[in-house]
Design goal:
single chain; 283 residues; alpha/beta; Rossmann fold; 2 domains; six-stranded parallel sheet; 9 strands; 40% helix; binds pantoate
Length: 283
């Protein structure tokens, strides 16, 4: 398996693949790979000749320095998992911060037509500038035909589609279903940091989303939101940051339901100092 630490070697290798008319899929990650990432990579391998996987904990998208420091970094284990998927059709880009940013570790600022002001954008200052900066830079380096993102970060997926549109980046962005553990917890690299007690409590998030979806069939967004807030108010291990019912096009909080629109519920919860997000389609 080719593992590149610097972009010049990676670009040379990719140019070589392109000269042989190979199609290239791309799965950008921050490492600590799990079955959710594996499902994106497998989809990428089904659609393309080769899949590039980047493993890079991007400092500019963290608004919380402690979260950045504690973010799991497990490159050797990640490579083992990738080798189990394919030894010869995956290439890895695992750069240093310097290789990506040079001396200037900062983000550019982006407008995503308002999508950036909702939910994660409201609670994580500068997060989507950091995501836009790294994803645009990685697209310019890797030049993939298709790129794969999980719907767990649904807002991120929409923002990346917007970025690609606005900058005319020639890549097809493909959203993939949330991969869940058998108890319903959405797969996330941060799950590895949960204590056994918090891990056991965490499926409550998805369970609550599923009930919220049922209630949304007959009740208003406001009533459902209040109900979810009450569920967490009495929970002693999980703290609700937000629960929002949003229009899937604009990501704006729903005031009045219309049966012509599609809605999704979004949630962010703290399990001790670990922030977990999830979402569910409502109609
Ligand atoms: O979703 C992630 O893991 C990150 O936000 C991404 C897309 C790899 C950018 O750093």
């Amino acid at each position: 398996m080719h593992i590149f630490k610097n972009k010049t070697d990676l670009i040379n290798h990719i140019n070589d693949l392109k000269s042989k008319k190979k199609t290239l899929g791309f799965v950008p990650t921050m490492g600590a790979l799990h079955q959710g990432h594996a499902s994106l990579i497998i989809k990428g391998l089904n659609d393309n000749d080769v899949v590039a996987v980047s493993v890079f904990v991007n400092p500019t998208q963290f608004d919380n320095q402690e979260d950045l420091v504690k973010y799991p970094r497990t490159l050797d284990k990640d490579v083992e998992l990738l080798k189990e998927i394919s030894k010869d059709r995956i290439i890895v880009y695992a750069p240093s911060v310097e290789d990506v940013y040079g001396e200037n570790v900062s983000s550019n600022s982006f407008s995503y037509d308002g999508l950036e002001h909702e939910m994660e954008g409201r609670f994580r200052d500068g997060h989507f500038d950091g995501v836009g900066t790294i994803v645009k830079r990685l697209f310019e380096i890797v030049k993939p035909d298709r790129a794969y993102f999980g719907e767990k970060d649904f807002q991120q997926l929409m923002i990346i589609k917007k970025l690609v549109d606005k900058y005319n980046i020639p890549v097809r962005v493909i959203g993939c279903k949330i991969h869940r553990a058998t108890d319903g917890l959405a797969m996330s690299s941060r799950n590895t940091r949960l204590t056994p007690e918090h891990r056991e409590a965490a499926p409550f998030i998805h369970k609550t989303l599923k009930t919220a979806k049922e209630k949304f069939g007959t009740k208003s967004a406001n009533v459902v939101t209040k109900w979810v807030e009450n569920q967490f108010a009495s929970h002693n291990l999980l703290e609700l940051e937000y629960f929002i019912v949003a229009d899937v096009e604009t990501l704006k909080t729903v005031k009045r339901k219309s049966n012509k629109k599609s809605y999704r519920a979004f949630i962010a919860v703290y399990a001790d100092d670990i922030r977990l997000i999830d979402n569910i389609a409502l109609n």
